[in-house]
């Protein structure tokens, strides 16, 4: 059994959607303005975004996008940095990893 769906409450559906499409290759299968979007990955996972007024995830909450190798992690990190996101360089921890605060009020981990 594997998890195939997750819903995130976000402060801005449009910017969160664009972020996930741009940096992580998710594809929007449908949306309702800035109130809802359904995003899909290439493995059939469905990530829905719903607008909320107040978004307060626990400090350690995050979603992860595993990559195949360190080069891919470095490339995403560099692209985010060039586009103005506040990201620290990847480091070796429980994997080769870094975190970024995504538009909409949630954290993303990129790792291999």
TrEMBL record:
Checking Gene3D superfamilies in the record gives:
2,3-Dihydroxybiphenyl 1,2-Dioxygenase, domain 1 (3.10.180.10)
Enumerate the Pfam families for this protein. Answer: Glyoxalase
What sections of the sequence does the record tag as coiled-coil? none
Q: Which InterPro entries match?
A: Fosfomycin_Res_Enzymes, Glyas_Bleomycin-R_OHBP_Dase, Glyas_Fos-R_dOase_dom, VOC_core
Domain annotation VOC: ranges: 2-112
Q: Which domain of life is it from?
A: Bacteria
The record's listing under PANTHER family reads: LYASE, PUTATIVE-RELATED-RELATED, SLL5075 PROTEIN
**Full protein name:** VOC family protein
- UniProt source species: Paenibacillus sepulcri
């Amino acid at each position: 059994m594997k998890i195939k769906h997750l819903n995130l409450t976000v402060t801005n559906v449009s910017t969160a959607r664009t972020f996930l499409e741009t940096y992580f290759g998710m594809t929007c299968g449908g949306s309702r303005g800035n109130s809802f979007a359904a995003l899909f990955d290439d493995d059939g996972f469905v990530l829905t975004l719903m607008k909320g007024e107040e978004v307060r995830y626990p400090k350690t909450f995050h979603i992860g996008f595993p990559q195949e190798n360190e080069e891919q992690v470095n490339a995403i990190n560099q692209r985010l940095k060039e586009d103005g996101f506040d990201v620290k360089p990847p480091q070796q921890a429980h994997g080769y990893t870094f975190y970024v605060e995504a538009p909409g009020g949630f954290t993303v981990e990129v790792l291999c």
